[in-house]
Design goal:
- By secondary structure, the chain is α/β, with parallel strands linked by helices.
- It contains 18 helices and 15 strands.
- The radius of gyration is 20 Å and the shape is globular.
Length: about 450
């Protein structure tokens, strides 16, 4: 029988994270302060431990993974890779389709890959509490779990629309001991200001970040943790791509194209960056970030310096952005509703080393249902974006006869997103293309940087 599962041993868990900065053709754009001048690592010290700050600014190719982190990874890593034989048959494509399944983590998504080291480094620094935000709940669940592992209190500001849509994600966080608030909340000045301006505010990741950063900066025993965007977060996620390379070696194959959803960039960077090193060495591989048409950061945003949050508490980062005051529609892929993107992903996309496509909501659920009915796993709405783009390419292969090897990262399961599937089956979901005039208007509100 043809092989379906490609498995690694626990000894194959990576011993080092891969830092893509070492292989970028140009150094990353500097992070700026409110005055428009570059800031040093010390500017991040009020909310991050020095060990993570050092990773954030590092240009070393390999960063050692602490043994305590590798030990925690053993709960679910290495994650399995699958050959999607049934999906291939249903599509009638000559393409070979593989996917890496990160839904085997206790929290059900790839986010645990970075929540564990972030909790570890904060514990080592003597921190007692973590304040963070979450969109769809995957990151909040992962941080709550990691906080429990390392004895940290965790407070989560959850985007209000997701707080309402995904009650069982809230239950997971509470089970692991975290406090969860709908954002915007009355707990912070940023939240109160947003509610005073609009009592029906559905929230955004940028606003939830403002609340979490505000709390972390106001208490010496509390640090901030972020589930995407920052360099050290994408660094931790490279365990995905590093394992995948070993799994492809086991079956004697190599991807022609790699797809992954992209909101802040952790999912995409985690699977794509280790292959970017091969691309830099001359290997032919296309790396495709997939985003919603309702939040088209890479495909239609501005490449400019902007704040990472709505209240303008963070430093200025050069990235593709829809504007820090972007208020997204309430699509169900809550983890992809961020106004900006990783500075590393943004720069590499700007330099044409990566590709990006945007897909509409209904097509992503159609792809997710087909995947569930062929491969058995019900994907998270975010993961459906990568699946949809991969299926589109597989159908192009069917039309052309090309026998490409296609690979996508299945970042998490959709067991707590069944309300979204119910709405899809009931015909209550709709596609939404973010208006061009709103994107142009955001340009006028971007910070003026010389």
């Amino acid at each position: 029988m043809p092989q379906t599962k490609i498995l690694l041993d626990e000894a194959d868990i990576p011993t080092h994270w891969y830092n893509v900065v070492a292989d970028m053709p140009n150094p990353p754009a500097p992070v700026l302060g409110p005055d428009g001048k570059p800031i040093g690592p010390e500017a991040l010290a009020p909310i991050f431990p020095m060990s993570l700050i050092e990773q954030e600014v590092s240009a070393e190719r390999w960063i050692a993974i602490p043994e305590a982190v590798r030990e925690a990874y053993r709960l679910y890593r290495p994650s399995p890779m699958f050959r999607a034989h049934r999906l291939e048959a249903a599509l009638g494509t000559p393409a070979r389709i593989y996917y890496k399944y990160e839904g085997v983590s206790p929290a059900g998504s790839h986010k645990v890959n970075t929540s564990i080291p972030q909790a570890y480094y904060n514990k080592e620094a003597g921190i007692k509490r973590i304040a963070t935000e979450t969109g769809a709940g995957q990151w909040g669940s992962s941080m709550a779990l990691a906080g429990q592992m390392f004895g940290l209190e965790v407070r989560v500001y959850m985007v209000k629309i997701s707080y309402q849509q995904k009650p069982y994600r809230r239950s997971m966080m509470t089970t692991w001991g975290a406090e969860v608030f709908a954002s915007p909340s009355r707990e912070t000045q940023a939240g109160r200001a947003a509610l005073d301006a609009d009592p029906d505010n559905q929230g955004s990741l940028g606003l939830a970040i403002s609340e979490a950063v505000e709390e972390a900066a106001s208490r010496p025993d509390t640090n901030y943790a972020l589930g995407s965007v920052l360099n050290h977060v994408l660094l931790h996620q490279t365990v995905i791509g590093l394992e995948a390379k070993k799994q492809f070696e086991k079956v004697g194959d190599y991807p022609d194209m790699i797809f992954a959803p992209c909101g802040g960039g952790s999912n995409f960077g985690g699977v794509a960056f280790p292959f970017l090193a091969d691309k830099a060495a001359g290997k032919q591989v296309r790396l495709v970030a997939v985003e919603p048409t309702s939040c088209p950061t890479l495909t239609r945003g501005h490449y400019a310096y902007d704040f990472g949050d709505t209240a303008k508490l963070t430093p200025l980062m050069k990235m593709y952005t829809l504007g820090h005051d972007f208020m997204p529609p309430g699509i169900h892929a809550g983890g992809l509703r961020y106004h900006g993107d990783s500075t590393l992903v943004s720069q590499l996309y700007h330099e044409k080393l990566l590709e990006a496509v945007a897909v509409p909501q209904l097509a992503t659920f159609q792809a997710g249902v087909l995947f569930a009915r062929t491969e058995g796993i019900i994907p998270a709405p975010e993961s459906n974006h990568g699946i949809a783009a991969c299926i589109d390419e597989a159908l192009r292969c069917k039309a052309s006869g090309e026998k490409k090897t296609l690979f996508f990262n299945l970042s998490g399961h959709g067991h707590f997103d069944m309300g979204a599937y119910d709405r899809y089956f009931a015909g209550e979901l709709e596609d939404y293309a973010y208006p061009e005039e709103a994107i142009n208007a955001a340009l006028e509100r971007l910070p003026k940087v010389a």
